Amino acid sequence: METKEVVDDITVKRAITRITYEIIERNKELDKIVLAGIKTRGVFIANRIQERLSQLENIDVPVVILDTKPFRDDIKSGQDTSDISVDITNRDVILVDDVLYTGRTIRAAIDNIVSHGRPSRISLAVLVDRGHRELPIRADYVGKNIPTNQSEEIIVEMTELDGQDRVLIGL
Q: Which SS3 state, helix, strand or coil, does residue 83 take?
């Protein structure tokens, strides 16, 4: 598959910083927030948002890890490997993922979260929104909108896993 870089490492960093500032602006009680990173790259993005919140607001926001595979309606897969070590009841949970596409992963993430408690609110932060929704789901915080064709693929690379930060389009 041929790929083309559409977002470089500096733009990824700026997008995560922008999302962080929007979270600060839209949330009156930052101490009620829990960031829920969706495996795998969403966890890395959530950790970076947590780090920026600590730097900017001197607050330690917890990060939990969500495994959506056992909750999917299209491809079910084994044991739930989520790590939700914080009581999410009456908290503002912000789901964090790398790419928003059909919405099915986010639906599964919501199912997972509500199986662990009853948050007061659930919102969504994504690094890339590529369109083509199959479910009525939209992101509250978006790093980059990258319109695509159905045949194209968005590939997010993160330093923690891939050795660099960038977004590619697979053609």
A: strand
Distance of CA 131 to the CA centre of its chain: 15
Q: Please state, in angstroms and as integers, the Cα–Cα distance from residue 83 to each residue in 36, 72, 109, 111, 132, following that order.
A: 10, 17, 13, 15, 30
Gap between the Cα atoms of 8 and 20, Å rounded: 19
- Kindly report the CA angle at 157 between 115 and 130, in degrees rounded to 5? 70
What contacts 14, CB < 8 A, 6 or more positions away?
Answer: none
Distances in Å between the alpha carbon of 8 and those of 2, 11, 130, 135, 162? 17, 5, 17, 29, 14
Q: What is the pLDDT of residues 62-120, one digit of tens each?
A: 999 999 999 988 777 789 999 999 999 999 999 999 999 999 999 999 999 999 999 99
CA distance 170 to 151: 9
Q: Is 58 exposed, middle or buried (0-12, 13-18, 19+ CB in 10 A)?
A: exposed
Q: How many CB atoms lie within 10 A of CB 134?
A: 11
135: left (phi over 0), alpha (psi -120 to 50) or beta: beta
Q: Note the pTM of the prediction, 2 decimals.
A: 0.97
Dihedral angle sign, alpha carbons of residues 74, 75, 77, 81: negative
